[in-house]
Amino acid sequence: MKRLAQGALIEDDLTEELLPGKTVDFPGGMKQSEERITDGENFKSKDAVDAEKTTESFTEDSEAGEVEDASKDSEGEETESTSEGSEAGEAENDSKDSEAEETESVSEGSQAGEAEKFAEAQTSAKPGEPTKTDNGGEGDPAQDGAEWQDVEEQGNESQRFAEKTQEPYFGSVKFFKNMILVAVAIAIAVPTVLAVAIWRHGEAAVSTMEGEQAQLNTALEDLQTRYDQLAADKQAEEAIWGGSVAGQVVQTEPLDYQTLYPDFYVDAPMGAPVQDDKTMYLTFDDGPSSNTPLLLSILRSKDVKATFFVVGGDTERQRQWMRDIVADGNTLGMHSYTHNYHEIYESVESFLDDYYQLFTNIKEATGQAPTIFRFPGGSVNSYNYPVYREIVAEMLRRGFVFYDWNLSSGDASSNYISPKRITDNILNNSSAFSRGIVLFHDAPSKDSTVEALGGVIDGLREQGYNFAPLSREVRPMLFNYTDYQPD
Questions:
Q1: Which is it for strands 407-408 and 435-441: parallel, antiparallel or unpaired?
Q2: pLDDT for 211
Q3: Poorest-confidence range of 73-82, 368-377, 474-483?
């Protein structure tokens, strides 16, 4: 009786109902949103229904334990009161009947209170942690252990249920929120990266344009320099040819020597002038000779093309050397057939006779007609001074171009000259010219020239010069001896 009274609950506590919309805390701390369940006129939330089911199962166990305890107490009291008499036994029976009725009424009302306290204990206590019984004292250990084992199982089951019903990440609100943040970050980063790239590209473009502008300015300066040089060359040529018969070649009746050798002309038209700054033209006079193969071998090893102004050409050996010169990509030019100054410069006719013979030999030996020539001793010398103007005018009229030189190796001397002296004569003076025509000689006695050739080529390359053979498109290098008077 006493034990039952301690566990009894107030009737008002038993009659308290869960209101619609109230949130119920389940074991494990998981809050479930409620769904209303209608049943006729009365309705309760889904969470309230689940709580009632849990309370009912717990209440049934509680009732069984309390009834058993009450029965044991009653039996003990009955044993003690037997010795007092039947009167006391009857009173005991009446007391039992009243206690049973009271127990039934209290058990029905205590179900809700016990369930509510059970739910509160589950939310406040950690899973697996023991708590005090509802009557304020320590309960029976075996009973409490069984009760809390059931509570733990229910809590674990609720936690598993919550994990199963947990909303997945993909497709959730959090997922779409993160996707929006990523999109915003991309929307900010992409324009920023593009702006930086465009800015850097713009700087590079400006730098490139500035470099191109500087190159254009340099090119314009070079063109102006070349124009000025051409104008100066033209003035020099006009000064050279001024007062000669060059201005009288067009006449009603041709001069006698103009009718000589009708095939002694250059048929091919002249091409555009060659731009040849920092170019050296190596030329060899008086060949071919036994040194020609040696000179050709050095030129091949250095990958250099040169020009050979040859003489003679009567023997088969000479003609073969001429073919070798042409086969290596070099240029063949005329330097006279006899190389006899007195005979060649006696008159314009004698000059044409001599050169036409050489012209024919070269054409027959190589199959190519020469288009350039060099005067023996240069375009102006003490032998041709009386007639050099007329000779120059006639050869130009026939389409031939002649070339003097501005750098000499010094190997024309009849005395011995060392290879070092030849090399120094060229390399020590070459830096004064933007372009140069170098004079060598190809003769059997010019061994020093053969020995010096390789060093001359290497030295000129170190000074930044290129090499090329002469052609009619190359601007002539002329002696400017308009006031020359022979001694």
A1: parallel
A2: 83
A3: 73-82
Mean pLDDT for the chain overall: 76
DSSP string across 284-339 = EEEE--TTHHHHHHHHHHHT---EEEE----SHHHHHHHHHHHHTT-EEEE--SS-
What pairing do the DSSP bridges indicate for beta strands 279-287 and 331-334?
unpaired
What is the chain's length? 487
- Closest-CA residue to 436 (of 403, 411, 462): 403
| Residue 80 C-beta-side C-alpha neighbours within 13 Å | 7
Q: Parallel, antiparallel, or unpaired: how do β-strands 307-310 and 279-287 relate? A: parallel
pLDDT (0 to 100) of residue 172: 78
**Largest Cα–Cα distance in the chain?**
189
C-alpha pair distances (Å), 364 with each of 70, 181, 270, 360, 431: 150, 90, 23, 6, 40
Please name every residue paired with 439 in a beta bridge, in sequence order, or none if there are none.
283, 408
> Exposed, middle or buried: residue 289 (CB in 10 Å: 0-12, 13-18, 19+)?
buried
| pLDDT (tens digit per residue) in 222-231 | 888 878 877 7
| Rounded distance between C-alpha atoms, residue 25 and residue 43, angstroms | 20
- Taking the alpha carbons of 121, 122, 124, 126 in that order, is the dihedral positive or negative? positive
